[in-house]
Amino acid sequence: MRGVVQSAGESPPQGERRGTTRVTIRSAPQRFVETWIDALAGFLFCVVLPIPIYATGEPFAGPFGGT
Q1: What φ, ψ does residue 65 adopt, rounded to 5°?
Q2: pLDDT 10s digits, 26-57
Q3: Cα(14)–Cα(11) distance, rounded to whole angstroms?
Q4: Which residues have C-beta within 8 Å of that of residue 54, sequence separation ≥ 6?
Q5: Rounded to whole angstroms, what are the CA distances from 10 to 17, 19, 22, 60?
Q6: How far apart are CA 24 and CA 45, in angstroms?
Q7: Are the C-beta atoms of residues 13 and 19 closer than 8 Å to each other?
Q8: pTM of the predicted model as reported, rounded to 2 decimal places
Q9: In this structure, how many other beta carbons lie within 10 angstroms of the beta carbon of residue 53?
């Protein structure tokens, strides 16, 4: 609050305290895009990346016997 003088025993209003920062809320489209980017990165890391790592192992290297 600018231009308001506070007495010595008075605490500043909520959100105006010294040393605290205000939280700004991002716009809805920005949050939507960030959510999809996080989901895509998680899918790539958890689903796509393990395929070449594990698919070169023993069960997939040879023929599938009785299947």
Answers
A1: -40, -90
A2: 888 888 999 999 999 999 999 999 888 777 76
A3: 9
A4: 60
A5: 11, 17, 21, 72
A6: 30
A7: no
A8: 0.46
A9: 8
